[in-house]
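User: Can you model how heme C sits in this protein?
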Amino acid sequence: MREHLLVALAALPLTGAAADPVPERQQELIHLLRQDCGSCHGLTLKGGLGPPLLPASLDERAADGIAQVILEGVKGTPMPPWKIELAPAEALWLARQLKQGLPR
Ligand code: HEC
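Assistant: Here's the modeled complex, given as structure tokens:
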């Protein structure tokens, strides 16, 4: 059942009119960003093992390109793919939060 849901979500186009995650899920995603992504990209996302994920560092990159990196990871580097945990719309939402800057 859950697998079917994931497959359905994975089939959604990455850009397009996918709705934002519900507020409760948004909180979980921000938590994931600070904890899991923060373990490599730094707690304040200023960089660590991974490069900084601050608005200034991501300025040149389109949100859907960032979402793609989040979903697929970067082969041959420690950056893991997150598509098992994140739906495309969630990755895109996270990419937009990163470009905009997290609230302190
Ligand atoms: C195990 C360590 C690790 C974790 C956990 C991790 N990353 Fe990464 N990430 C990396 C590394 C290393 C790179 C640089 C890859 C390269 O050399 O291109 C990277 C690259 C990226 C990039 C591309 C940045 C750029 O300027 O090209 C984005 C965006 C990104 N990560 C987002 C995330 C997000 C969002 C999460 C959490 C969902 C996350 N990462 C979790 C290690 C990690």
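A couple of observations from the model: Residues 81 and 103 are 25 Å apart (CA to CA). The chain has a mean pLDDT of 89.
User: Helpful, thanks.
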